[in-house]
Amino acid sequence: MEVKQISVFLENKKGRLWEALDVLAKSQINIRALSIADTSEFGILRLIVPDPEKAKKVLAKNNFTVRENDVIAVGVPDKPGGLAGILKILTDADINVEYVYAFVEKSGKKAVVVLRTDSISKGKTALKKAGVPVLSAEEVYSL
Amino acid sequence: MIWNREAECMQIGEREKLQLERLKAVLKRVYENVSYYRKCFDEIKVKPGDIKSLKDIKKLPFTTKTDLREGYPFGLFAVPRQEIVEVHTSSGTTGKPTVSGYTKKDIEIWGEVMARALTMVGATKEDIIQNGYGYGLFTGGLGVHYGAQRIGATVIPISAGQTKRQLEIMYDFGSTILTCTPSYALYLTEAAEEVGIDIKKLKLKAGCFGAEMWTDRMRDEIEKRFHLVALNIYGLTEIIGPGVAQECEEKNGLHIFDDHFYPEVVSPDTLEPLTEGEKGELVLTTLTREGTPMIRFRTRDVTALRREPCKCGRTLVRMDRITGRTDDRLKIRGVLIFPSQIEKALLEIKGVEPHYQIIVTRTQHLDELEVQVETSKKLFSDEVRHLEETRKKIEKHIENAIGLRVKVTLVEPKTLPRSEGKAKRVIDKRQL
Lengths: 143, 432
What we know:
- The structure holds 2 protein chains of 2 kinds.
- Chain A is α+β, with helices and mostly antiparallel strands.
- Chain A has 5 helices and 6 strands; from the N terminus they run E-H-E-E-H-E-H-E-E-H-H.
- The radius of gyration of chain A is 16 Å and the shape is globular.
- By secondary structure, chain B is an alpha/beta fold.
- The radius of gyration of chain B is 22 Å and the shape is globular.
């Protein structure tokens, strides 16, 4: 199963981010990873959560525009050059990266990198071929 | 179905005779009983007797909303106040409200024209009409009510608002006809999902929507979501309320009940009458009202008249869907535009919901036009680049339609005000 990411449209208004996160908190949804893309007028909150379906439902119910899409998660050794190595593989395969964010898993030994390539399947194939450990949805959600 | 075949399918020559006869009578009544009209007629030296043909109507002075305010509250009654059995007022959004007084006979006329309108929509005594127009001083609620009662349909006087209850009642009672503003109808379809009502299980077959400007695209959306036939109704408090004109199933304009309301279309600039098919301001004269007759009332609504026969068999003159108001024409950097043009352009883009707001500001002596659009699920993307592209696409599309550069802002869904009455689409913040 692909790793699912939830995106939420946020207007650039005071308290909106808190409101979105509060909705998740009240539904007992824990956030595994998060990133925010922002422009002067709006932001996009991107989330990895253990139960994307539930998160989608509660956010939509609270009038947020929500979208779900696939992303790639890979495990990277937590040392200098870890992420650069991954990006080199994708660049060499002529695959465009739309955005990327990273978090360190609990043991602190490994970093987990979330990647959004224009084609998820191509990105995955290229990484796997180069021997990069691509994580399954179950692995990511249970981190 | 036609409610009053004799009146609605009358031979045109016959109707003109009737109109002239009624016009002469109403002019005599207002000249004798309303000092305001007598003064206006005397000022330009016109006597009711000078009107010998329908064409002569152009010799008469216009009446505007401002004129009516002069007589506030009861100064324009053409009968003693004791004869008035009901009053209604306009919303007063542009100043003091205007008062419309109804005699017993006026209420009967209102019931008659609304029975015609609802029959045109498909209502019979078998139907359950859910009336979501506001009851009260606003004419929408009671107008539909009187028409529904005349037909003998079952009317649910639920009034505007209480969205959850509207939907529950619609489902539980099996309402077959819905009457409300088009923007509220759309709102109801959105809310159905949240309330947990399956739209497909509703028994609605038709809707009679009006009291605000809307577009064909909005009609398509309502029809698609609600699985009903959506028809346009027109009216205004000063004339009688809803029931001045109604669209039939042919959907080619609204039939004006011109045996009661005599229409003209004039140029908003020169005030000269325009010919058939030319767009201008609708001017109405009530031919039968007793309480507050109106002579050449300037509605400010922009439309055109059509006289070619309609397939439905009615010979009543038709008017186009209202495309703007002469008083909400926006002059942006010297260019005249109607908010409806922006709406039309917006709705041509896939995924854009008919919820938007236009904000006009002036910074550094330059008018800026901002259009706020709700970001629907279909428009949203997890990539900033895509969202920016969507935004620019909408900007470009509006620019092509109106010839002006606009700034489009994406806002969160359901943050723009939904109206239960008239949707407020334009916020003009310019301080001129």
